[in-house]
Amino acid sequence: MPQEANVAEAAARGLLFIVSAPSGAGKTSLVKALLDQDSGLALSVSYTTRAPRDGEQDGVHYHFVDAATFDRMAAAAAFVEYARVFGNAYGTAAAALGEQRDTGTDVLLEIDWQGARQVRERFPDAVSVFIAPPSLAALESRLRGRGKDSDEIIAGRMAQARDELSHHDEYDYLVVNDDFATALGELHAIVIAERLREPRQACRHAAALRAMLGGG
Ligand code: 5GP
Q1: Where are the beta strands (DSSP E) in the chain?
Q2: CATH number of the structural domain 2-44+105-212
Q3: Which of 6, 101, 114, 136 is the most exposed place for a label (fewest CB within 10 A)?
Q4: What is the residue extent of each domain of the chain?
Q5: Ligand 1, residues 85, 108, 117, 162: which to mutate, most atoms within 8 A of Cβ?
Q6: What separation in Å is there between the alpha carbon of 101 and the centre of ligand 1?
């Protein structure tokens, strides 16, 4: 039956996870630790017009492109979502995302709330997680702990962080990153629980369930 085939096909595709957080909430470290722990999960590498930071590699942390290339890709509908964040453009390439999911790999998008909205529209079954700091004071001390930024830059980042935070209620899950190990465990629990949702499991174990139920 075509409908059954579609359900099975959808179940074989990788899940889509969205993770957003205000800058300084610890999202990048949490996501890195999660990926190290879970071989069934891969990161989508975004395109950006911002300059690489020290230690960032093209094709690993981001695909670093100029504004003209980014605009060309956007015009050609190459992105499933894109947005401007802190004055730079960021986008998720549709082709790479589709290829990753087609192999059955679950894919994680580390994107801002604007991108998250676009992805939810396009993929209503995407699972979204918001990571919040325990307090603004903790966030500020983490931002200051990074080093050399001026008070003005910190104030700007704090304003941006509050703006990102105000969108927490658009997400399926909320993780508060007070203790790193606890937050990591919670993040992984979400991934595992989503994989265990009944419809996916029923497709994965269809033959065994049929055999147990005596239907053939
Ligand atoms: P950063 O420049 O510090 O790596 O990232 C700045 C912000 O851009 C973060 O909130 C990050 O989640 C977001 N971001 C990174 N890649 C993408 C993307 O592909 N799309 C969108 N919408 N946001 C992104």
Answers
A1: 16-20, 41-43, 47-48, 63-64, 79-85, 88-93, 106-110, 127-132, 173-176
A2: 3.40.50.300
A3: 6
A4: 2-44+105-212
A5: 85
A6: 20
